[in-house]
Amino acid sequence: MSKLPTHSLFFIPPPSKVSLSFKDYFSRQASNYAKYRPGYPDELYSYLTETATAHTAAWDCATGNGQVAIGLAPYFEAIYATDASASQIANAFPHPRIRYSVAPAGASELPDRCVDLITVGLALHWLPLEEFYAEVKRVGRPRSLFAVWCSDLFQVADATPEIAALIEELYNLILPMQPPEVQLVHDHYQTVPFPFEELPAPTFRQSVQWTPEMILGCVSTWSAVQRYADVRGWDGLKAWGDRLSAAWGDPAIPLTVCWDIYLRVGRV
What we know:
Helix 1 crosses helix 8 (212-219) and helix 6 (161-174) runs antiparallel to helix 10 (235-248). Helix content is 33%, strand content 24%. It has helices at 30-36, 42-51, 67-72, 86-90, 129-139, 161-174, 183-186, 212-219, 223-232, 235-248; strands at residues 10-11, 57-61, 78-83, 98-102, 115-121, 140-151, 155-156, 197-199, 203-210, 255-267. Strands 1, 2, 3, 4, 5, 6, 7, 8, 9 and 10 form a ten-stranded mixed sheet that branches. 36% of the residues are buried. The two termini are 17 Å apart. The protein contains ten helices and ten strands. By secondary structure, the protein is α/β, with parallel strands linked by helices. It folds into two domains: 10-152 and 181-206 and 259-267, Vaccinia Virus protein VP39 (Rossmann fold, 3-Layer(aba) Sandwich), CATH 3.40.50.150; 155-178 and 208-255, Arc Repressor Mutant, subunit A, CATH 1.10.10.
């Protein structure tokens, strides 16, 4: 069996070893990404753990700041978390079981057949699929689990008509600016090629308690919002946030915000 890499917590290779061609919409706001992007429900990680055939090691590709890697850490002996953005990795959440490294999706530098689970949370649409799928088949052990997922747009539960209208206004404002790859998310990844032995997968419901400040912080990390701000500046979004706070009542009191998570899961 190939030897796994040693557990240095962070590994950032020289620029010559990292692909510079990946579509990078997130490095500029990596600190906000770490602060405001939510994790995923425990039920998702329990499902992945139960469906995986072993729990020695997992690879979380396009890890960002490690939201998925942190969620997997209680269940796997070692987590190898990679991202093409050095800025994202520099802002990653440390954990003794996680080894972070800067690497493109198609060149993880992990040994052959070394992991029992490979995950991509809300990032498959950014990856070069042919190269990445070849890497999945190289790195995954026989019958290892491959799982990808995406989510719907969020809604505020029990929103007043004014709050609901403001959320709809936000989407009408920014969605025309989204990169074309995001359509794959709206299709719940069902139109993405999936050359694996596919398994039935459940849908999960994510609920968080957010204030208007947290909503604006999260959406500020979206690729569509970054493109909107590049063209029109941040003033319109800040004004929208002020109106949301006014409609909220007490903006310090969080409300329930929720969305659905859609998976595709298969055996390597």
